[in-house]
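REQUEST FORM: STRUCTURE PREDICTION
Request ID: SP-0412
Submitted by: Lab K.M.
Chain count: 1
Length (residues): 84
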Amino acid sequence: MGVERGLKGLRNVLEGVRFPVTRDAVVDAALDAGADEEMVSALRAMPTAEFNEANEILRAVPLPDTEPDSHTESARARERDRHD
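STATUS: Completed
RESULT:
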């Protein structure tokens, strides 16, 4: 079993998570779902906190610049250019 990479895969992992949840519990859920090391590393890079909803986690995970909907300015610029 494996998890799709990127934001879509993370959303799939979060569907099975009960909130509120800690960062470590999200990491465990991703590992249980078969997430790759890139996703697990990104989840481990989140602040140690308790999250009350999936959107809090999606905002906290540092996504690669190449990921659409990434929080980095360069990724947002690429996304804007793609839609022009």
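NOTES: Strands lie at 21-22, 50-51.
Reviewed by: T.R.
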